[in-house]
Amino acid sequence: MTSLSFLPTLHLSTSAHFLPRAPKSLRPRAISIKAQAVPALTQDDLKKLAADKAVDYVKSGMALGLGTGSTAAFVVDKIGQLLKTGELRDIVGIPTSKRTEEQAKSLNIPLTTLDDHPSLDLAIDGADEVDPELNLVKGRGGALLREKMVEAASKSFVVVADESKLVSGLGGSKLAMPVEVVQFCWKYNLVRLQDLFRELGCEAKLREGENGKPYITDNFNYIIDLYFETPIKDGVSAGTEIGKLEGVVEHGLFLDMATAVIIAGKTGVEVKSK
Predict the structure, then answer these.
(1) Which of 97, 194, 202, 230 holds its CA 20 to 30 A away from the CA of 88?
(2) Tell me: the pLDDT tens digits for 116-174?
(3) Mean pLDDT, residues 98-127 taken together
(4) CB–CB of 248/179 below 8 Å?
(5) In what order do the strands lie in the sheet with 120-126?
(6) How far is CA 263 from CA 46, 158, 162, in A?
(7) Any residues with CB less than 8 A from the CB of 198 and at least 6 apart, and which?
(8) Is 163 one of the catalytic residues?
(9) How far is CA 188 from each of CA 192, 202, 244, rounded to the nearest angstrom?
(10) How far apart are CA 61 and CA 121, in angstroms?
(11) Can you tell me the mean pLDDT for 93-122?
């Protein structure tokens, strides 16, 4: 029998007892592999993805409308970071709420007003609902009046949202569609708003703050939230009829205003534009 150079010469027997055993160092080890699950993206993760994409639209020297809400807050944070590192310069912002104003000041973002800058290059804000035509419901954060003023004054309006905000028709989420009203005789307008959309199964409620008292906007008004059992069929007509009611200051239907909508979902980020 031919012997191998790295093994001693052995006279093998047919008995398995005498078969050579591999050294311990060469024996295969039992390996336990535990599959590690990839953590699912949270809603905040999705909002941040959309916000980061939206900031790509921002260029040095722009006058910007700074939105209000949890998604818009990520946008404002990112702009502040880019100004700090020098990647953006000469930016001036117009906040749509006192909350956003405080955040922007804490990040040293220079601020102005529509009185001084009546035409803006770009506004970036979140949305509560987005329909297939890129019409929006906004204002669940209570800043709908200032948001609409700033975004109407902007040459471009980019919306950031996560996929949970997509609806087939406005009001389709069955969550609040806000209407800002003056405090005087607010209940009178609540009843009129509910009657206006009775056929859609609308329920109107006065918004309350954390203290249980009526929520007061930055403009010292109240908000009546409309909850629809059936989505609004004609947003333009609905907005027109709401606006006819004396004492209504503004409504949360943002129609034909968005230039692009950035939607973050579990499969990635999608940009929708008209």
Answers:
(1) 97
(2) 999 999 999 999 999 999 999 999 999 999 999 999 999 999 999 999 999 999 999 99
(3) 97
(4) yes
(5) 92-95, 63-66, 120-126, 154-162, 260-265, 268-273
(6) 8, 11, 5
(7) none
(8) no
(9) 6, 16, 14
(10) 9
(11) 98
Contact between 180 and 217 under an 8 Å Cβ cutoff? The reply is yes
Encoded tokens for 87: 């990647």
For residue 11 the two structure tokens come to 């006279």
Q: Which of 45, 42, 41 is nearest to 74 (CA)?
A: 45
Helices 70-85 + 43-55 axis angle, to 10: 50
Half-sphere exposure of 104 (CA within 13 A, CB side): 24
pLDDT confidence band for 19 (50 / 70 / 90): very low
**Hey, what amino acid is at 201?**
G
* Residue 22: both structure tokens together: 């591999």
Which whole-number Å values give the CA distances from 238 to 3, 11, 169, 203, 234, in the listed order?
95, 98, 13, 15, 6
- Name which residue leads in pLDDT, 76 or 3: 76
Locate all alpha helices (DSSP H) within the chain, ordered by sequence.
43-55, 70-85, 98-106, 144-152, 186-196, 235-243
Catalytic entry in 87, 101, 129, 147: 147
Nearest to residue 50, comparing CAs of 123, 103, 126, 109? 126
Report the alpha-carbon distance of residue 222 to residue 235 in Å, rounded: 22
Give pLDDT, residue 43. Answer: 86
How many angstroms separate the CA atoms of 266 and 256, rounded?
A: 27
In whole angstroms, what is the distance from residue 86 CA to residue 127 CA?
29
CB 179 within 8 A of CB 145: no
